């Protein structure tokens, strides 16, 4: 067979070109893949995140422009070792990184900051233990406390001054005593560490915190701010010199400087932060400069050696805890003018003067709120002076001053109304445990005193008293003798009041514990008041209180309102109340008589427990319930009549009423049991009759009593607990004639068979 060589197939030039291109592409892709694989596995990865939604952020506004603050990194974000922070987010320059944003990001080795960055927050890179390098933004203004703490970068720095660009970031290690911070000059003289701040444009937060050997500081005039915690807990710091030009002393700047006795704050300072000087040794007189716009909470807290404070005329806001615990502070003045009514102060914060030794204080004319515990625990405080606008003519204003029959204002009070600038609210615990405090003294605009001593009036016009706190303790532990809750507005005869519309009487509630432990309180006047509710423990332990007359406006008195009022003798209750609440008169050991108006339906548990001199009580003829231990330990109570309306008797009601001789029980069919311990310990109770409705005598109902005879009227055999008559000396048990034998043969009554007789 002849062999025929096959003819070659002609090659299409275009096809050949395509194959070459395809092969090339494949080669390039493969090579790229290999390269990218390698690139993403090495440590020196570098990415620009300018356009990646990696952050949460918010806008920051300054005088000229809007920037962005990075608030956090999204939880699922994976950061490379070498990280570039974006120049912009949403087309706005990044100007700030908030506190703790990169905290404990151990994968970071280097960071590149944008040139626009101005602020690095507290602990921003704290714990980034592998972070060794970063650039210094040219616009940086502030680096927060411990921003780079526990990083490789800080570890690699030598002991001593550590700078970030032109900013002193921290002092690493312990300064040698006696250490100084100077504002220029020869820094080589003498022993000890000397830091010259003139080399720097600024310093970050916490630079010298806890430097125990630092004894003196001078801040250069070009420094405008002392940042947070800069000198906190420098225990040996005794001398501080601040120059004009300084505008801000931040939070905790000198807190805990327990040797710092004197400091002069320049008039240029307009901001003092929270706790700025707390727990320092500043002593003597302090005058806050008139240019201050803000003094933060706790700024001078526990500066125990401050004796006098001068508040400037333009100052408006006494912050919370401002002088709390300044135990030697005895005098506070507002501005340098003759009358504090010229002061601009309108707010006195929570515990602002708590624990001080002020003896009296004049509340500035414009104050509208005094917060919780502002004057609490002031052992020397006797009186507080409050302005009232006696010349005010605003319609719908509310006047709380009162006059006698001669037209003279005699009682302390407060004023509230429309646009009127006056005290409108004393909050929770304002005067708690200020044991000598006894008067709120009302003044007119000319500072004429128009009140009596030892007396406080709480007018119904005051809309807020003691706030809404469950324990107001507004006057707890004070020496107030008289509380006036009445309106007495018919006695206002002064010319100034003729055009004043008095209305909207709105004070309905006395807050809980408002006068608790007011040991000298003798008189409470409810006459004509609109008080509807007396709060829990409102008058607890008012040892000097002898009588109470509750107006008919009172509809409820809460738990323990008059508990431990040991000298309370006379009580007249409201005709519109329905309940004697739990422990309402507990341990009122001088209370002898009480009569419940017919409106009362309930006596709650332990209502009169420990009223050892209560000899007579007349129960409401409509009473339905008597709670557990209601009269427990009322050792002088001689007789009791329980009305037929009563439907429920709890346990221990008359336990240990050792003088009880007579008890008449309800014939209401719902009262079918002498409850457990009901008459236990009634040693003078010799005889008692149980009506037909009583079918059960419970455990220890008459245990340890003086009971000798008992009459049972129930048409059947009364159920008897085995210990119902424990330690009694019964002589006769009277039952209906037709049930005598049934009783004698009953297992429960068998032990008393010889005593059972017919009625």
What does this structure look like?
The chain has 759 residues and is mostly beta strands. Among the domains are: 46-156, Leucine-rich repeat, LRR (right-handed beta-alpha superhelix) (Alpha-Beta Horseshoe); 167-249 and 260-268, no CATH class; 368-545, no CATH class. The strands form 19 sheets. Strands 2, 3, 5, 6, 8 and 10 form a six-stranded mixed β-sheet that branches. The longest helix has 27 residues, at 13-39. It is elongated.
Terminal CA distance reads: 151 Å
Name the overall outline: elongated
Arithmetic mean of pLDDT: 82
Name the assembly state. single chain
Structural class: mainly beta
Number of strands: 59
What proportion of the residues is helical, as a percent range? under 10%
How are the secondary structure elements laid out?
Elements lengths: L12 H27 L6 E3 L6 E7 L4 E8 L8 E3 L3 E2 L2 E6 L12 E3 L6 E2 L12 E2 L7 E2 L8 H4 L4 E5 L2 E6 L6 E4 L11 E3 L5 E2 L10 E6 L5 E2 L12 E4 L5 E2 L21 E2 L10 E5 L6 E2 L9 E7 L5 E2 L12 E4 L12 E2 L11 E3 L6 E2 L12 E5 L9 E2 L3 E2 L5 E3 L4 E2 L7 E2 L12 E5 L11 E3 L6 E2 L16 E3 L24 E2 L12 E3 L7 E2 L12 E3 L6 E2 L12 E3 L6 E2 L12 E3 L6 E2 L12 E3 L6 E2 L12 E3 L6 E2 L12 E3 L8 E2 L12 E4 L5 E2 L11 E4 L6 E2 L11 E4 L4 H6 L10 E3 L1
Parallel strand pairs: 1-4, 3-6, 4-7, 6-8, 7-9, 8-10, 12-15, 13-14, 13-16, 16-18, 17-19, 19-20, 20-22, 21-23, 23-25, 24-26, 26-28, 27-29, 29-35, 34-37, 36-38, 38-40, 39-41, 41-43, 42-44, 45-47, 46-48, 47-49, 49-51, 50-52, 53-55, 54-56, 55-57, 56-58, 58-59
Antiparallel strand pairs: 2-3, 5-6, 11-12, 30-33, 31-32
């Amino acid at each position: 067979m002849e062999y025929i060589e096959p003819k070659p197939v002609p090659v299409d030039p275009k096809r050949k070109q395509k194959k070459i291109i395809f092969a090339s592409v494949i080669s390039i892709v493969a090579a790229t893949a290999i390269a990218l694989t390698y690139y993403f596995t090495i440590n020196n990865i570098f990415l620009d995140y300018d356009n990646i939604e990696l952050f949460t952020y918010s806008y920051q506004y300054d005088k000229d422009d809007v920037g962005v603050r990075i608030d956090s990194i999204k939880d699922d974000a994976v950061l490379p070792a070498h990280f570039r922070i974006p120049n912009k987010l949403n087309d706005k320059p990044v100007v700030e990184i908030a506190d703790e944003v990169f905290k404990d990001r151990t994968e970071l080795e280097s960071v590149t900051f944008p040139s626009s960055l101005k602020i690095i927050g507290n602990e921003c890179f704290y714990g980034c233990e592998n972070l060794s390098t970063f650039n210094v933004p040219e616009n940086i203004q502030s680096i927060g406390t411990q921003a780079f703490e526990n990083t490789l970068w800080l570890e690699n720095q030598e002991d001593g001054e550590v700078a970030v660009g032109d900013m002193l970031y921290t002092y690493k290690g312990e300064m040698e005593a006696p250490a100084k911070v100077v504002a220029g000059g020869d820094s080589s003289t003498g022993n000890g560490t000397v830091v010259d701040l003139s080399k720097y444009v600024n310093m970050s937060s916490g630079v010298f915190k806890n430097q125990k050997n630092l004894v003196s500081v001078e801040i250069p005039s070009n420094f405008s701010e002392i940042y947070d915690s800069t000198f906190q807990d420098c225990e040996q710091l005794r001398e501080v010199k601040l120059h004009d030009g300084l505008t801000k002393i931040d939070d905790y700047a000198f807190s805990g400087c327990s040797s710092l006795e004197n400091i002069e704050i320049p008039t240029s300072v307009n901001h003092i932060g929270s706790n700025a000087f707390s727990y320092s040794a500043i002593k003597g007189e302090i005058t806050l400069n008139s240019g201050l716009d803000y003094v933060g909470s706790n700024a001078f807290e526990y500066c125990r050696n401050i004796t006098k404070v001068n508040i400037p005329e333009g100052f408006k806001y006494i912050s919370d805890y401002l002088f709390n615990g300044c135990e030697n502070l005895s005098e506070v003045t507002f501005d340098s003018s003759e009358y504090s009514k010229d002061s601009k102060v309108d707010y006195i914060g929570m515990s602002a003067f708590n624990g001080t030794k002020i003896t009296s204080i004049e509340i500035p004319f414009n104050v509208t709120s005094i917060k919780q515990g502002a004057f609490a625990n002031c052992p020397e405080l006797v009186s507080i002076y409050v302005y009232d606008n006696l010349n005010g003519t605003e319609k719908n204003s509310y006047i709380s001053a009162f006059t006698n029959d001669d037209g003279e204002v005699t009682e302390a009070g407060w004023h509230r109304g429309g646009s009127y600038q006056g005290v409108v609210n004393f909050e929770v615990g304002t005067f708690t445990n200020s044991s000598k405090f006894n008067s709120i003294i009302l003044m007119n605009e000319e500072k004429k005193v128009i009140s009596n001593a030892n007396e406080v009036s709480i007018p119904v016009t005051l809309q807020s008293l003691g706030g809404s706190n469950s324990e107001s303790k507004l006057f707890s532990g004070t020496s107030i003798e008289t509380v006036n809750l009445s309106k007495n507005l018919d006695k206002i005869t002064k010319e100034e009041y003729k055009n004043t519309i008095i209305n909207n009487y709105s004070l309905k509630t006395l807050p809980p514990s408002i006068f608790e432990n007011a040991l000298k309180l003798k008189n409470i006047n409810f006459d004509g008041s609109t008080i509807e509710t007396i709060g829990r423990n409102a008058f607890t332990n008012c040892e000097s209180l002898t009588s109470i007359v509750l107006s008919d406006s009172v509809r409820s008195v809460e738990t323990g309102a008059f508990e431990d009022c040991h000298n309370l003798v006379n009580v007249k209750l409201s005709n519109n109340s329905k309940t004697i609440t739990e422990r309402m008169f507990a341990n009122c050991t001088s209370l002898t008589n009480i009569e419940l108006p017919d409106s009362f339906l309930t006596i709650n548990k332990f209502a009169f427990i420990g009223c050892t001199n209560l000899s007579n009580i007349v129960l409401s003829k409509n009473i339905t319930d008597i709670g557990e231990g209601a009269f427990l330990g009322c050792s002088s109570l001689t007789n009791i009549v329980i009305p037929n309306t009563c439907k429920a008797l709890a346990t221990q009601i008359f336990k240990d009423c050792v003088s009880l001789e007579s008890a008449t029980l309800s014939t209401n069919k719902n009262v079918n049991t002498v409850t457990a311990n009901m008459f236990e310990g009634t040693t003078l109770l010799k005889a008692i009759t149980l009506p037909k409705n009583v079918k059960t005598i419970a455990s220890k109902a008459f245990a340890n009593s003086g009971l000798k005879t008992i009459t049972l009227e129930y048409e059947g055999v009364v159920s008897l607990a085995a210990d119902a008559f424990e330690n009694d000396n019964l002589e006769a048990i009277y039952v209906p004639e037709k049930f005598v034998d049934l009783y004698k043969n009953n297992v429960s009554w068998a032990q008393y068979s010889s005593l059972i007789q017919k009625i």
